Amino acid sequence: MGNDGGVIAVKRKFMRHGNTKARSEKVSQEALRVQKAQTCAISEESLREPIVVCELGNLYNKQALLEHLLAKTMPEKFQHIMSLKDVVTCRFSKQKADSTSSNGASLFYCPVSMLEFNGKQPFVVVSTCGCVVSERSLKEVQTKECLVCGKSMDGAKLIALFLSDENYELKQKEILERKAQEKLLKKESKKNKSSKKNAADTADGATADAEENGEETAKKTKKDKKRKAEGQHSSAAHVPASKIVKDATSAIQKEKAKSAVFASLFSKDKSEKKSANDLLMTVGGMRYTLS
Fold first, then answer.
1. Rounded to the nearest 5°, which phi and psi values hold at 268?
2. Which stretches of sequence are listed as region Disordered (predicted)?
3. Residue whose C-alpha is closest to residue 169's, from 253, 271, 57
4. Residue 105: is its pLDDT beyond 50?
5. How far apart are CA 274 and CA 289, in angstroms?
6. Are 102 and 116 within 8 A, CB to CB?
7. Averaged over 222-236, what is the pLDDT?
8. Taking a C-beta distance cutoff of 8 angstroms, is the pair 265, 288 a contact?
9. Residue 212: left if φ>0, alpha if ψ -120 to 50, beta else—which one?
């Protein structure tokens, strides 16, 4: 220790300031978490309800986030948020203003472990209900229901708050890749649905054309039959009267030959002797004897 170059300091008390870089990084990370627990990630204003959280654990004032979404001015760091569907509304538990707060303002805390929400302790958000609790409480109490509201946690995701920069970048990359894949699948599904609809419309159109052609054929057949019937009726109406008389006379002669009784109806022979049983019948000005 006499500065003669012959002594090497190996005791811890002589090296307490040797790792200043690591200590400064740790302090900066803690300060960053405290800042994240108090300010909006996108506007850097103090958090005020309603507060929402994204999958990466960033906290936002809902009004500020909505303004950026409507104006389409989302920074690249928050490009994983495309709509309010990508965030969850947080349900914080407040402690009274006369508690351990240094400035008298209301603070958020975990109602199970009673830990303050100040960025120094890890907290999570239950995605299904939005309740904010500490990781310690979930580790100590194993349950399938939310420790705050009692709702089922089946299918729920636990969104970790205050991620480190390294974990933040990795998780953001995973989310963007997943969203791109979902968008591609949705586009393909929509394309397949459109193709099926076009095929169905084509089939319906072909069926309609066939039905229309069938109806036209039926109408044409009906018209042809009607035209043919009218033609036959017209032909019958134009048959000469002489032909009708001739046909009638021929039919009568044939019947006379077959039946004597029928022939007697047309007999005008007055030489025949009439009997008391003879029955006279006058038809069309002619008298007929029926015996």
1. -120, 15
2. 187-244
3. 57
4. no
5. 9
6. no
7. 68
8. yes
9. alpha
| Of the candidates 233, 232, 249, 230, the residue with the CA atom closest to the CA atom of residue 241 | 249
Q: Which of 87, 11, 2, 12 is nearest to 42 (CA)?
A: 87
Which position has the token pair 């009784």?
261
Q: Is 247 helix (H, G, I), strand (E, B) or coil?
A: helix
**H or E element in which residue 54 lies:** strand 51-54
Instruction: List the chain domain ranges.
Output: 12-181, 259-291
Spatial separation of the C-alpha atoms in residues 179 and 183, rounded to whole Å? 6
Whether 117 and 37 have beta carbons less than 8 Å apart is answered as yes
Distance between alpha carbon 8 and the CA centroid of its chain, in Å? 76
Tally of residues, the chain: 291
Residue closest to 117 by CA, chosen among 238, 33, 185: 33
- Give the span between the Cα atoms of 129 and 89, in whole angstroms: 8
CB atoms within 10 A of CB 283: 9
Residue 20 backbone dihedrals phi, psi, to 5 degrees: -65, -30
Strand partners, 125: 132, 159
Q: The sheet that has 59-61: what strands, in order across it?
A: 59-61, 51-54, 87-89
CA 277 to CA 291: how far, in whole Å?
Answer: 6
Collapsing DSSP states into helix, strand and coil, what is residue 289?
strand
| Six token digits for residue 254 | 């044939």
Give residue for tokens 């309800």. 49
Taking the C-alpha atoms of residue 199 and residue 193, their distance in angstroms, rounded to an integer, is 10
- Tens digit of each residue's pLDDT (9 = 90 or more) over 70-81: 999 999 888 889
Q: Give the C-alpha separation, 275 to 212, whole Å.
A: 76
C-alpha span between 270 and 287 (Å, rounded): 11
Least confident of 13-17, 43-47, 110-114, 206-210: 13-17
Q: Which two tokens stand for residue 188?
A: 């393909």
